């Protein structure tokens, strides 16, 4: 038996055959198959040649001397030759697998809240990409990537809480607008009632009539006969629902009522339009979708909190948790 090194630096244990041909078995990475190569004639074959009696060495025998000697000594025994072949192949594949794992550890999966898509970050090169790397090793993270993920989670959760508060403020504004709308509609109804009461009075027998001063925004009282004016309600005053003043007083009061009604009705229309914009189905659907996204972010923060150390919380005080926030209540209100 002799040890032969081919042009690629691969050492093999082989025996001289009658026709002096030296066949070795090698591995093709592109097809994941074994093939046979003749060191003398440079011939390659997928089928095992009849003259083949060599042992495959999948990598150069640049290992320690003892292991190389053991391989050389075992060449005479076919079973030992086979075992040596498997051992060397395992060493080679193990080294390739370890290299793949080391490469895969560099990539981590991240989340971009702006686009709501995942992306992949290489902690060694700083490279980011949307496509999933072929060598991504799921579940493997380094310490620096874990720290980045925790800080990103805290920041996104803070933004999510701020958005929920904004939606809650909009909801309070909506309720306030509804109340203002009800008040204005009540004013319009009261003015219409007053005008109807004035229109139903045929004669003028009341002494005092009530008027509204738009400048001071107060009511005053004028005597139908003497023309005297008082800011305090006279004892003899009869409410507008049964006023019986002069035709001129009734006309003036009717004009004032109509003006107040027009102003109130315009205000009602403005508030109703604003309220409609807040309660539009598309707007409400968008708010609900945002709340659901917020829920995902805050749930991620809850999971992340278990990984945050006390030193990290002190280092990032602006990301501190807010105990007053209640996500469940916000979702129920939505």
Automatic annotation (TrEMBL):
Keywords: Coiled coil. SUPFAM superfamilies: WW domain. Residues 23-51, 107-135 form the WW domain. Residues 154-194 form a coiled coil. Pfam families: IQ (PF00612), WW (PF00397). This is WW domain-containing protein. It comes from Phytophthora megakarya.
